């Protein structure tokens, strides 16, 4: 019997009937979503926690001497049921939530933190782990086994196992408080985003908007029982309105609403920022680090804050003057059109788009007809086929969690199942903003049986309307490629232990597989294969592709500095060495000053809705996007050198990067693929700054 079946022996009838813990008699053991109800989550998680405790007790009380198999592997395989149940819950809480689910999240967070702490702070368990670790050189372990052992020992040490007495109790207290606060931060950001809408009933104020924008706003209004056109703070609504509307007063109102989400009021996150960063500092200090960044970066590819701050400063120094030049160019163009006064942030999208049209004769309206979502999806699948021999077949015998989600079998060239892939494209109030990849389960091998992953890609793309299918902007297209790169990292993963497979790599390395995929978006050889007008079927004209390529680096310096500002704010908060007791807004302004190329509107703040670093796992990690851009720029040049569909290069990238997961240090993986270490110059050269 499986561990799940064993766990059900002797338990009550109620839990036996709970679909979250029972055996899943479904294709590929996929979640039976239609059977799962809200009332199932907490009992299932409580039960799975007890099973996990029993598994740990069995390891601790094993009368045999600690070995790699009976301690390290046993630990790696423990918590399977808990991981399965929480995997379903958290995936759905991010993309199909409700007030009831948010309350469940609040209820279970302390319990999950407690079991995590009880494991990492268990002295008998750590003693067994340490006994194996101390003998590591004599165990004849293979590379993957050795990495699991090292990561297991390090995980204990970094989670307080070396602490004693009062210090351990403080660690428990701080981590429990922190998990609750970060959860609340994310809920506040989502609620604040959903709380604001702006309804427009004067047709003159939307007359200039492209049809696709007006149709989307009208659909939003109709869904809310409103007349006219409704703008929300969801990206497919907010972004196009800011880009195409000349209604400066409305745009200022929208901008201020968007950039003051969770600033004061019912969903305030300002004080949460102070509390979160204070707790992180306390945890770092307890573990012997001067600041939280030192603690985090010790386990990253960059390794220390000196490297990260130097990296950010180097990129900023190299591009800041060009970014100011970008802003001056757009401001001058706005003035030539009759704009008076200082260009403010709410003016930027409109006039930069106008200038792009004038300079490159290209805009989203020209490109969108060639980027029908269904065609883009097929084209992305085709690219994976050309590079890695993968095929994607939509199936209807596997349940999805929402009517808008679709599911696919992914197979390799030998017809072996590689993954089940769930796609979820459109925004809704129950889904958090942004785009991401995650898994219901990852890759592992147990008792000689390989478990393939259940991968999910979630986006917030332009919805279809009554008259028009979903037509993507070029940015949405590149977002699809980006997230699909993460998906490939999961789909092509190989290895015995889920905790070091697939995307379970250093945080500043995980964006390489996603960033590199974006490069195909402007490759004519690729676009020529599939980019056709959704109405006429005509191929994207060569001159339009040329314009896309020419516009690829439009405002590259400005956007580079903007991205650096996120990383610098992240580093500023996580390099504090004493608790910050001052004004949170003032702290942010000071941190952003080195990257300020546009005025910062009074009352606006990035931090209170910056879920990546305050609730999304990217604390002291946002620099990783830029770090990975450097890797991706250098890596893609290899494809350009040998051919963008080169099987030789793709096979090398697959074997040395995608399949390897966290089996080796990322710098070793990268050098094995590319033949040399990455250099910042690769990204700067790619920007083609002028």
Describe the structure.
It is a single chain. Among the domains are: about 5-160, Neurolysin, domain 3 (Orthogonal Bundle), CATH 1.10.1370; about 195-260, no CATH class. The protein has helices at about 5-10, 15, 40-60, 70-75, 80-95, 100-120, 125-135, 145-160, 165-195, 210-225, 235-245, 250-260, 270-285, 290-295, 305-335, 345-360, 365, 375-390, 475-490, 510-515, 525, 540-550, 555-575, 585-590, 610-615, 625-640, 645-660, 665-675, 680-685, and strands at about 195-200, 230, 390-395, 405-410, 415-425, 435-440, 445, 450, 455-460. The termini are far apart. The strands form three sheets. A five-stranded mixed β-sheet has the order 3-4-5-9-6. Strands 1-2 form a two-stranded antiparallel sheet. The chain has a two-stranded antiparallel sheet with strand order 7-8. With about 700 residues, it is α+β, with helices and mostly antiparallel strands. Strand 4 (about 405-410) and strand 5 (about 415-425) form a beta hairpin. Helix content is about 55%, strand content about 5%. The radius of gyration is 25 Å and the shape is globular.
List key phrases describing it:
five-stranded mixed beta sheet; 29 helices; 6% strand; disordered N terminus; alpha+beta; Neurolysin, domain 3; 690 residues; two-stranded antiparallel ribbon; 9 strands
How many strand units? 9
- Looking at the chains present, what oligomeric state does this protein adopt? single chain
Strand order in the largest sheet: 3-4-5-9-6
CATH architecture group name of the domain at 3-162: Orthogonal Bundle
Mean pLDDT: 94
Question: Strand content of the residues, in percent?
Answer: 5-15%
Number of helices: 29
Question: In whole angstroms, how far apart are the ends?
Answer: 66 Å
Helix content, binned percent: 55-70%
Measured on Cα atoms, how large is the radius of gyration?
Answer: 25 Å
């Amino acid at each position: 019997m499986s561990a799940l079946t064993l766990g059900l022996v002797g338990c009550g009838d109620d839990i036996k009937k709970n679909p979250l813990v029972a055996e899943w008699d479904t294709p590929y053991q996929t979640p039976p979503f239609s059977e799962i109800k809200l009332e199932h989550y907490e009992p299932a998680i409580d039960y799975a926690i007890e099973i996990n405790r029993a598994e740990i007790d069995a390891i601790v009380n094993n009368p045999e001497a600690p070995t790699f198999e009976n301690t390290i592997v046993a630990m790696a395989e423990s918590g399977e049921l808990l991981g399965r149940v929480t995997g379903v819950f958290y995936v759905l809480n991010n993309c199909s939530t409700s007030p009831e689910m948010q309350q469940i999240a609040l209820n279970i967070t302390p319990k999950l933190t407690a079991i995590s702490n009880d494991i990492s702070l268990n002295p008998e368990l750590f003693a067994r782990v340490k006994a194996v670790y101390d003998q590591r050189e004599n165990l004849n372990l293979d590379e993957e086994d050795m990495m699991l052992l090292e990561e297991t020992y390090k995980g204990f040490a970094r989670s307080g196992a070396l602490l004693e007495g009062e210090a351990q109790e403080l660690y428990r207290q701080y981590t429990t408080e922190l998990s609750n606060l970060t959860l609340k931060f994310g809920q506040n950001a989502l609620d604040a985003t959903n709380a604001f809408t702006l309804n427009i009933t004067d047709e003159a104020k939307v007359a200039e908007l492209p049809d696709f924008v007006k149709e989307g706003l009208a659909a939003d209004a109709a869904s809310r029982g409103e007349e006219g056109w409704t703008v929300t703070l969801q990206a497919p609504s907010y972004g196009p309105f800011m880009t195409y509307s000349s209604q400066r007063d409305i745009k200022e109102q929208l901008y201020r609403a968007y950039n003051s989400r969770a600033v004061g009021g019912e969903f305030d996150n300002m004080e949460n920022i102070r509390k979160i960063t204070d707790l992180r500092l306390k945890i770092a200090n307890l573990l012997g680090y001067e600041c939280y960044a030192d603690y985090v970066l010790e386990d990253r590819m960059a390794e220390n804050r000196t490297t990260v701050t130097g990296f950010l400063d180097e990129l900023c120094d190299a591009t800041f003057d060009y970014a100011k030049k970008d802003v001056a160019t757009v401001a001058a163009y706005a003035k030539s059109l009759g704009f008076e006064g200082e260009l403010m942030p709410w003016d930027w999208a409109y006039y930069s788009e106008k200038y792009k049209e004038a300079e490159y004769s290209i805009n989203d309206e020209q490109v969108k007809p060639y980027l029908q979502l269904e065609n883009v999806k097929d084209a992305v699948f085709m690219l994976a086929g050309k590079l890695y021999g993968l095929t994607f077949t939509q199936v209807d015998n596997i349940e999805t969690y929402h009517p808008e989600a679709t599911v696919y079998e992914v197979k390799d060239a030998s017809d072996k199942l590689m993954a089940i892939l769930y796609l979820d494209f459109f925004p809704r109030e129950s889904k958090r903003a942004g785009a991401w990849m995650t898994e219901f389960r990852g890759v592992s091998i147990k008792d000689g049986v390989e478990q393939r992953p259940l991968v999910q890609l979630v986006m917030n793309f332009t919805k279809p309307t009554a008259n028009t299918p979903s037509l993507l902007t070029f940015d949405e297209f590149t977002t699809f490629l980006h997230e699909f790169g993460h998906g490939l990292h999961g789909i092509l993963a190989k290895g015995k232990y889920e905790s070091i497979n697939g995307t379970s790599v250093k945080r500043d390395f995980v964006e390489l597989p996603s960033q590199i995929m974006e490069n195909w978006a402007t490759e004519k050889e690729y676009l020529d294969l599939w980019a056709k007008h959704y109405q006429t079927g005509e191929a994207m004209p060569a001159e339009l592709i040329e314009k896309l390529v020419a516009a690829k680096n439009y405002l590259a310096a400005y956007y580079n500095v903007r991205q650096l500002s996120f990383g610098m704010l992240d580093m500023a908060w996580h390099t504090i060495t004493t608790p910050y007791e001052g004004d949170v807004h003032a702290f942010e302004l000071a941190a952003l000053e080195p990257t300020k190329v546009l005025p910062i509107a009074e009352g606006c703040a990035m931090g209170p809705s910056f879920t990546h670093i305050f609730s999304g796992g990217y604390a002291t990690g946002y620099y990783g996007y830029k770090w990975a851009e450097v890797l991706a720029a250098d890596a893609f040049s290899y494809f350009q050198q040998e051919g963008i569909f080169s099987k030789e290069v793709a096979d090398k990238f697959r074997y040395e990067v995608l399949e390897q997961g966290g089996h080796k240090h990322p710098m070793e993986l990268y050098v094995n693929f590319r033949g040399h270490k990455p250099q910042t110059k690769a990204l700067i050269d790619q920007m083609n700054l002028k």
